[in-house]
Structures are given as C-alpha cells and as structure tokens.
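Researcher: Structure for this, please.
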Amino acid sequence: MIRPNPAKQVLREGGVVYSSSVRLPAPGLCELLGFAGFDFVLLDCEHGAADAATIDLLVMGCHSGDTIPVVRVLRNDEPEPMMQVLDLGAQGVLIPHCRTADDARRLRQAVAYPPHGQRGFGPGRGSKWGLLSTAEYLATIDDTILTLALVEDPEGIERIDEIAAVGLDVLWVGTSDLACALGVPGQPGHPRVLEAAATVLQACQRAGVACGFPARDVAQALWAREQGYRAIGYGCAEQYVMQMARQFLGEVRGARGSSA
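Model: Predicted structure, token format:
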C-alpha cells in the first residue's frame, strides 16, 4: 500500500501538527527529528543546501525516523521542481511567496495527477519503485500529499481570502519575511506582523484551511495553538545544536573556578 500521511489525516480531523526543519544535507537529522516525534520535517531547498540527490537521502532519513518529508521548494513559477521532489518520495510541498490564488492553484495542479492536476507520470519511491501496481498508486497517491504555501508578502495578505478559497492543506504565515516587507526587519513578533498573521488565520478559519505559524519557543507555540493555528513549526535542527552548544559553553566557561 501507499505510505500513509498521518499529518494530513490529523489536519483533516481538525487537529494540530508540529514540524521542524533541516537545512544541511544530513539525513540523520531528519531521522532524529522523526524519532523526537515531529509530525513532519521540512526539507529546506529555499534557504538550505539541498539538491535533488540530497533530497533523496533526506527523504530516506525521514522515512527511517517515521516522519513525513515535506520539501520547501525554491520557487513556485514552474511545476517541475515540485514534481521532482514528489517522485523522490516527498509527501508534501511548501511553496514560498504565495501572493495570489493562481500561485496556490499552480501548486495544486503540480502535485496531483490528471484529471485533478497536471503532474507528469514518473513514480519512484512513492510507488515503492514499482512494487505497487500503477492502478493502486494512481488511485491513492494524490490523497497522501500535503500542500502548503507560505504567505509572507503584503500582496498575499491583501488577497488572502482568494488564496484560502483554493483549498490547500496549510497556509503558513512567514513572519520573518513579513517583518521585512512591513518595515520592521528582524522583528517577527512586531504588532504589524501579528496583525497580518491574524488576518491569515481568520481567512483560513473561514475557508476551513489549517493555518501555520513558526514558533520560536514553547510559550509562543502554546500561544499559537490557543489562537487557533493548527500547524506549528519549531526552528531547525541546526539552530538547536547552536543554541544548546552556546548555552553549555557559556555556563561552563562562566562558572567560578573555570580553567578554560
């Protein structure tokens, strides 16, 4: 049978999913995040070091850790990058800078096979490399793909009801890029940004679409969940390593009697 997508099912049932991301080409980090319990891991091709060969390995890392691989593609103006990562076994695609309903529709068309979309036929890992029959694969694969879009520009905020009406699984608020666009760079928690985020959330709730929010700590994650956000991201694995390493070194080197 097709590999299931529990994260998509949780969202369908009105639940909350949690994710983290990986930028470096390290499959073990994906595996680790899966074992930790994240519902899906975002493989970052927009800001990270991943190419097609790397995505192949990162997807296997996610599968090993029993989590869902979602790829953040570099661009959304052409369908081929989305199709390629799905053929490599990704079970979701996140597009950046979703500014219009057409951007959202382009994603839907790229990830679904005809008659519902325009995805080219070239199954790989999704069909277990041919173990599954073509009939079984085509009958079930579309239903296991997560569609996510980053709303991170004023244009997207202005058209958010049209975008939400397309019916993607998740519209994710890109607070950092919104902060830059709204004139408060480096301040993702600024009232202007949170006001824009609330606009996205309300549109998603009206349309029955999950809204995503990038939390920077436990308190913010709890706040986001209470507000009604149903897809909550928490940093990236590389940040965890840096933060914990700096905390450890700061404490031991600052301790009285340190010889370092």
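Researcher: Any notable elements?
Model: The mean pLDDT is 94. The CA atoms of residues 26 and 257 lie 38 Å apart.
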